[in-house]
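Forwarding the complex inputs:
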Amino acid sequence: MNRKPLLEYINKYINLTMEEEDILFSKIRYRDYLKDQYIVQQGDVCNSVCFILSGCTKMFYMDKEGQEHIVIFSIEDWWTSDLGSFISQTPADYNVQCLENTQLIQFTNNTLEELYSEIPKLERLFRKIVERAFVASQKRIIRNFSLTAKERYLIFKETYPKIEQRVPQYMIASYLGITKEFLSKIKSQLIQNQ
Amino acid sequence: MNRKPLLEYINKYINLTMEEEDILFSKIRYRDYLKDQYIVQQGDVCNSVCFILSGCTKMFYMDKEGQEHIVIFSIEDWWTSDLGSFISQTPADYNVQCLENTQLIQFTNNTLEELYSEIPKLERLFRKIVERAFVASQKRIIRNFSLTAKERYLIFKETYPKIEQRVPQYMIASYLGITKEFLSKIKSQLIQNQ
DNA sequence: AAATAATGTTAAACTAGATTAACATCTATT
DNA sequence: AATAGATGTTAATCTAGTTTAACATTATTT
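Prediction (whole assembly, four chains):
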């Protein structure tokens, strides 16, 4: 398995010795998922955090009316998981499903605790990861309150140009919190006003 | 200063020895704020996380139109800060302002780093705090997407009964992401249908 | 006690975005 | 090549929530 993507990611936050790198890789699990497979299912306790090597996932909430609400897309060099469920070891509120064949590295609950005691620096790494996730989540709340759907769509395009090209439009609508019909309308308005 | 509220809070997550408690309290700063004073101002780099001993604060974002969007209220035994700014040491997106005279304990950036190296367990504590904040933030996104304003208001009342009684209604409307007029309408509907 | 500021209510007119439904295009499978 | 399934578009109608504006009530200050 190619260690490089994960190590490059980790190096942005902390420095590991060779020995520590070896310990790390001895405790993780490599996995291959096919398109449409679920990594986490609503109701299960989520017992892993995953670093994506290749592929794409969506995390979504299914409401009582059976409507999907996408919370986030994840691609290479990002994480995916129901962090809330993982952290508190309670049933997941969300589903994580692969939109493409996806290769990833899994950190399970137990091994992460072991890793924290063997390499305390990792506690810092995962604190930083959660911090970043939190900041992104806070900014999203503000965007949803203070911007129109058109403005949110433009920001999405700018922030995640790679994702826009890989994901069907009706899922982007779900991520933006609008219907696919309304996104279609926004797009045609943008084309006309060009 | 009364150490009890903070220690009781911390004990829910980690256990400190007497010596560690002393180190902790030697590094923190007690502060008194008056009603309407700002703890954090949009644009400043936020250099503290605060544990509230008494009082009440609002954290809000001011948009280009000059409209306030309240992200969270905090009261006794909760934290307040622009965590995003604090974490990344970038200018704050939010303001934190006191709604009542407020007494709190400040952890500044530098002292927190010192504390982490003297008491590594604290790294875990603050990871947990950020994790909880993150989970709450994620749940809020979902609520805003999948529930009506009336449903959100009922959940708010149930979740934060203490806050509802302490805070003017127009601020609750701002927190819910609706106008004060519409909240007024919702309330009168609820009274009629009782 | 009066005056001012802050907060809350009501109602009419308006708009962003949802719903429904019919149709168009693209893609995968036989 | 033909069919079915998935995805995207357009337009009419509808609704949750906004805006505006006038008024009511409650605190706060003099």
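The mean pLDDT of chain B is 93.
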